[in-house]
Amino acid sequence: MDLPRRPKHLPQVQALAAIGQCKLMAMWDQLFAHLRQPVAQILLTRNDIADRTQYINAQNTFVALLNMGVIPIVNENDTLSVQEIKFGDNDTLSAITAGMVQADYLFLMTDVDCLYDKNPRTNPDAKPIEVVEDIADITADVSSAGSSLGTGGMGTKIVAARLATAAGVTTVITKSSKPGNIASIVRYAEAQKAAQRSMEGSLELSAPSTPKKLANGEQASQDVSSTDLDGVAIPARELPAPPLHTRFLPDLHPIRDRHFWLLHGLAPHGTIYIDNGASNALSRKAGLLPVGVIDVVGDFHQHECARISVLPSRDAPLSEAEEIGRALVNYSAAEIKRIKSVQSDKISEILGYADSEYVALRENVGLFKSQNHDQRHPCRTDGSAWEG
């Protein structure tokens, strides 16, 4: 467009985004045309998935396209997005999309080979982190600010990996300049999965089986095999070491469907602080009662999303709270402030009405995985992780 610099005003920026989308899709269409592979464009904003009906419609569209053999090209709808409804970066958008379609893998491409324990640009002794079993325990240098072309650095990729693995998606960080590495990494990961299944199966046998003999009397190999991208079996021992990458193992108890939408499809507008009793009740599948609410921060309306954070004690400072989930609330922030810490039978007396005895129904509460399950994966005896 021969512009000397990036426009400062939103309408001009969004107009350029509309022009750029045409060029971007033309490029994708041309690239995939060489493979005779049809593609489709899907543009999303946060509002598109904040509404439950629209979220399901988007999910159904993805499924229909994939069943038709069409590859969806997903991007944020920058032509319509404003700050309040933006995903913020493509890493988050890709993780939410991966969770929506229940993908097997999510690849987050970046300008380094993998995640390191230190910034490799400034620390020659930085060590690669190849497998992450529990993302909550990770200690790494994520000071990379991102590329000049992208919208996310390593920090946003860690957040995206946490989101995707919670949905049961194996997440990989690897170098964007070597896209051919993806196939090698998938082969290696699938071989490890097959090896684990074989090991688990052998432990279930009541007695060791007799090794099979070949016609020449030699013992048959019992190597676990993977398959290449054409479905041809490849023994695990013949697979070369994969390119350097970081693989985040998926949660053993993934969040699906409505709970995934509650936790990651909605943008929270405030925080409800609760006590341990209320937290335990939520873990037991009970709803959130006002008596368990300690405080409220933010400005949200009825049926909007709020964070749920638990305090170690009722007199603890809010800074000590731990976020445990999200909820669609039955009352506004102002109303919850008035009924906090009281019994439900007092709601109508205080407000003059009572839409519900609960601040949030249990079906409208999504809890993060640490509340219900141990997320750790089985390990080999040498401490290295198996794919789960």
UniProtKB/TrEMBL annotation:
Residues 199-226 are annotated as: Disordered. PROSITE patterns: GLUTAMATE_5_KINASE, PUA. GO terms for cellular component: cytosol. Residues 270-360 form the PUA domain. SMART domains: PUA. Keywords: Amino-acid biosynthesis, ATP-binding, Cytoplasm, Kinase, Nucleotide-binding, Proline biosynthesis, Transferase. GO terms for biological process: alpha-amino acid biosynthetic process. GO terms for molecular function: ATP binding; glutamate 5-kinase activity; RNA binding. Pfam families: AA_kinase, PUA. It comes from the Eukaryota. This is PUA domain-containing protein. The lineage of its organism: Eukaryota, Fungi, Dikarya, Ascomycota, Pezizomycotina.
